[in-house]
Amino acid sequence: MSVAQHIRDRVGRFRWMGLLVVWAVFIAMAAVLLVERAGVQYSAGQHRLGMLAANDAVPASSAIFGQKPTCLVITDSDQDGVDDVKDQFDQILLDMKIAHRDVDLALDGADAIPSLTSFDRVILLMPSLDGLGTHLSDIMSWVSAGGSLMLAMPPDNSSYLQVIASKLGIESAGYDYVKAESIVPSEDFMLGGGERYELSDPFDSSLSVSLRETAREWAKTGDAGAPLIWSNDCGSGRTVVCNIGIYDKVMRGFFAAAISLLGDATAYPVINSAVFYLDDFPSPVPSGDGTYIKRDYGLSIADFYTKVWWRDLQKLAQKYGIRYTGVMIENYEDAVNQTEPARQPDTTQFRYFGGMLLQMGGELGFHGYNHQPLALWDTDYGTLYVYKTWKNKETLVASLNELIAFQDEVLPNAHGSVYVPPSNILSARARKLIGTDVPRIKTIASTYFEDGTDLPYVQEFGVASDGIVEQPRIVSGGMVDDSYMRLAAVSELNMHYVSTHFMHPDDLLDPDRGAKEGWEVYKGGLVDYLEWLTKSAPDLRHQTASECSGAIQRFSSVTVSVDTSADAWTLSLGNFHDEAWLMFRANNGEPGAVTGGELTHLTGNLYLLKANDKTVTIERKEGGDK
Questions:
Q1: Which residues pair with 151 in a beta bridge?
Q2: pTM
Q3: CB 485 within 8 A of CB 465
């Protein structure tokens, strides 16, 4: 008998071998559970996109300063509503990095309109064209010779409109206005196209028109089918009309898409990021009414979070490639006068949930030492909130430093750098203190939209003058039957190619946020949004908050110019670092081979361009829209 056979024979006769195998399995399982529940031994995850050094990232206004204007914007501030529209378009053009020159007929007069030979685009921001006088004829001659004109507001039906109506693609126009209750962008025009999006507070905002056969309709209302955005070839040039008449911030993506119809090709920087925030996470078990949780699951609040809510979020993360960013609350007390805030003694929840989130490739940031917004004596909550204000700047800064130290103690590899204001409230003085006294915080993620009060810290995507990245959140919660949020989502996909979403663990404790409907309904709305997002933008990068901040830094800093020749488009990028992402629309010609970048087809003649070099050349072949 060989030695090997002898050993096998001895082992085979060992009557306890089967039991030893069972013990080994149980020991292994116990070890895994210990690591999971301890939340200590985790991998913080390798960030796929790092943030730039503060001095390498610049505000968009600084990046574009000194650029040669390629767009002429003509307004008439004496006409109703023009100033508000101008504010929106200033931000849209800034984010698209389209340098422009302004002429206000009310202040400068029509004779201040310069020669159009140095411009690629003219945008008219005024309903009445009468103030242009003979300059309107000059503009249309320039268009016929190859220029691009956009009427950004529904025009008044005057004799001036009637003279140029055919060149705008208008067959006939009435004197009445129709209600724009919804908008349906064509499938080949925008991401998320082919679907109906409801407009908030609709009114009779769109001029009643019928279009010529030569016109190309890009968006219409979903009810009466009234045209809202269309283009028309005019000689060697093109006209575009936006007949929407609603200019809220939530509509920016539609106007950006319309602007991109101008010229032979348009390229503008985008962010390319989807971020999913979990506010108040991790934190002590939230207090609140667990009636509906008990009704649906027969569980305590703590058990529901562990056994149902968190497990479902893990499944969604795996299915959709989400890497959550949780923002911590150390406690729910309301102390606002401590220069040495008390440390949270119970760290179980933080280690357990925070550790697993990091294991999933997620990220942790900061929501507050407690849930009191960072605001001093100069903030008045009125009857809207029962929050307190901080005693002085020392106690405010101390609360942030305590939260940072607490996170470093319980989850030492988290390295948080993102701050989310509770209820999106952050006073101007507190915002300045973060930039000067709390260097650990490199990003503030508040809200993109106003709420009718002066309390929210409302942001634009970009880099602030103190170097902090501004990363507003756009949509939230389960979004069940929330048409405004879906409109905001599609708009920002096309404006910035971005989705920032947040939800709270305690949404299911508040009837106003979905508690009564229950988690299954709430989760169904979230899944519906994720399915829509995946379908509309399958190439959108799913990132953590700090990765998104790195993308915002590059977006804010980069500039772009497009030079068109018979056989190529050449893009020149200023302030280019290691990568840049851009929307590229080929209006006249079809893209071919690319050098210096990678081109991905999105829809119609719209492409996503990843620039790997400061100069990108795209072969231009025959074909395209025109």
A1: 124, 241
A2: 0.92
A3: no
